[in-house]
Amino acid sequence: MKKTVLFVLVSLISSTSFLNGIPTKERNVIQNTLLDLFGKHNRPRHNLFSDVGKIVTSATKYMLNLYQYSLGSELQNINNPTINLKNISKKVNFADTVVSLLNNGYVPRPNTTDESGEMYFDVSSNYDIEKIIETNLQIFLDVTYKTVPLNKFRLEVFKIVVPKKKYILLDSKIIMTSVSQWHEFNVLEALLSWVKYSETNNGILIVCKSLQQEAILVENCGVVGFKGSKDYQPFLVSFYQSSKNEEFFALKAPDFDSTSRVAQHQYFLDNKFKTSTSARLPKRFTRGIEDNDFLKAAATLAEKNNFVQSKLISKRSKNNKISDCGKHLLYVSFKDIGWSDWIIAPDGYITSYCEGDCSFPLESNLNATNHAILQALVHTIFPKKIPKPCCAPNKLNAMSILFFDDRNNVVMQEIPNMIVHQCGCQ
Predict the structure, then answer these.
(1) Would you indicate the residue range of the signal peptide (predicted)?
(2) In a domain, 267, yes or no
(3) Which end of the chain offers a freer environment for a tag, N or C, measured as fewer CB atoms within 10 Å?
């Protein structure tokens, strides 16, 4: 049902003139329905943003790179190669939502401290999260800011349990100081506890030590904090699976479900044909139908009357305007919908739609189901009783969108079943 609603809605809103002329109430209904299909409770409040195109942060750059990668760009061709995107394919393949969080060091909160290396991330969200796959802290080390004469040192990341009293080590790495670059730390354990018990979120502490365990101020190690350049400020990246899209991961390339084919066929046999037409057929045909040998019985009847093939060929030759079931282009512009203030990419997308004739005989390029072939054949025999099969999507692809949420976090979301890949008679 949702798929049908989506194609009707995008057909309407793809016309700018129609959308501009529609009353506010109906326009809101269209937008709210699309938001529901996108898995959102409401649209981000655009008054929180200035000019979307001018907001450039380290997290924004990372997410833009990630978005380009999700579209098939090679890592070496992505802009800003200093961002660490190693081993990213596994994360992207098993996540449908990626959220980046900037360090909110200036945000007033309980238990705040002025401790050097302290960072805070607001991880509260309204996303329907089924599973958190991975959460990483991205830290940039700028060697031009390093004041200690060390070629290497250790960076440790702690979860702050009680400020200035109790900490839990999350991850640590020995860092080479010869080059400025991003470094990634695993902080999944912290995020899991913060999502479950938000009041325990007292932030993260970054500690810099020499290999001899001597403490060094993180600023002297060259770590860029939340007061540094926006291009290099620390941020979190979380990879989620949402509860709404469970079937998306079980079926990356959507196709027909053989079980549903059988169920549809059986329903047709049990309910449609037997109640409306079997009384008109000779017993030798109804016996076959009751035995579920439906196709054979219908084909025999068609052959006996000797009209199916010649009648169809004659009809098609007289009316060349009837095109077979196929895919047609339909472009949806987020600007026309009024969403360009919070959707970063894409500007719009080609969703396409399915339209065309599904008359017997169904050619192989029409991608017909067994049930559709059967129904098309019976329609030629009983056109007033049995309708033609419908031309509809039988393969749908996901689409990725990059957007700002209510807290100015950049989010990439994979939305299943949004783009028609293939049409067929069903």
Answers:
(1) 1-21
(2) no
(3) N
In the three-class reduction of DSSP (H, G, I as helix; E, B as strand; rest coil), residue 413 is classed as: strand
Residue type, 367: N
Q: pLDDT digits over 307-329, tens only?
A: 344 344 334 444 555 789 999 99
One-letter amino acid for residue 234 of the chain: P
Could you tell me the residue range of the domain that residue 189 belongs to? 55-242
Task: Please say if the pLDDT value at position 291 is more than 70.
Answer: no
Averaged pLDDT, 202-223 = 88
**What is the Cα–Cα distance from 223 to 61, expressed in whole angstroms?**
19
Mean pLDDT across the chain: 73
State whether 21 and 120 are in the same domain: no
* Residue 118 phi, psi (nearest 5): -80, 140
pLDDT at 173: 93
- Quote the pTM value: 0.71
Closest CA to 412 of 343, 335, 350: 343
Helices (H), 152-282: 188-196, 246-250, 258-267, 274-276
Q: What angle do CA 415, 78, 60 make, to 5 degrees?
A: 60
Residues 59 and 186 in one domain: yes
In this structure, are 61 and 28 located in the same domain? Answer: no
Task: Read off the CATH number of the domain in which 359 is found.
Answer: 2.10.90.10
Per-residue model confidence as pLDDT tens digits over 325-354:
999 998 888 877 778 888 888 888 888 999
Q: Which of 271, 275, 255, 251 is nearest to 263 (CA)?
A: 271
The Cα angle at residue 255 between residues 254 and 256, in degrees rounded to 5? 140
From its phi and psi, is residue 379 left (phi > 0), alpha (psi between -120 and 50) or beta? alpha
N residues, the chain: 426
Cα angle vertex 106, ends 100, 112, to 5°? 105
* pLDDT surpassing 90 at residue 156: yes
Token pair listed for 387: 């309708």
The residue among 209, 242, 275 that closes a domain is 242
CA–CA separation, 207 and 215 (whole Å)? 8
Question: pLDDT value at position 330?
Answer: 87
Per 3-state DSSP, the chain is made up of helix, strand and coil in percentages (nearest 5) of 35, 25, 35
Give the residue among 190, 219, 216 at the shortest CA–CA distance from 204.
190
Q: How many CB atoms lie within 10 A of CB 70?
A: 19
Query: Are residues 212 and 328 part of one domain?
Result: no
66 within some domain: yes
Quick one: 67 and 32 in the same domain?
A: no
DSSP secondary structure string, 340-365? Answer: TTTEEE-SEEE--EEE-B-PSSPPGG
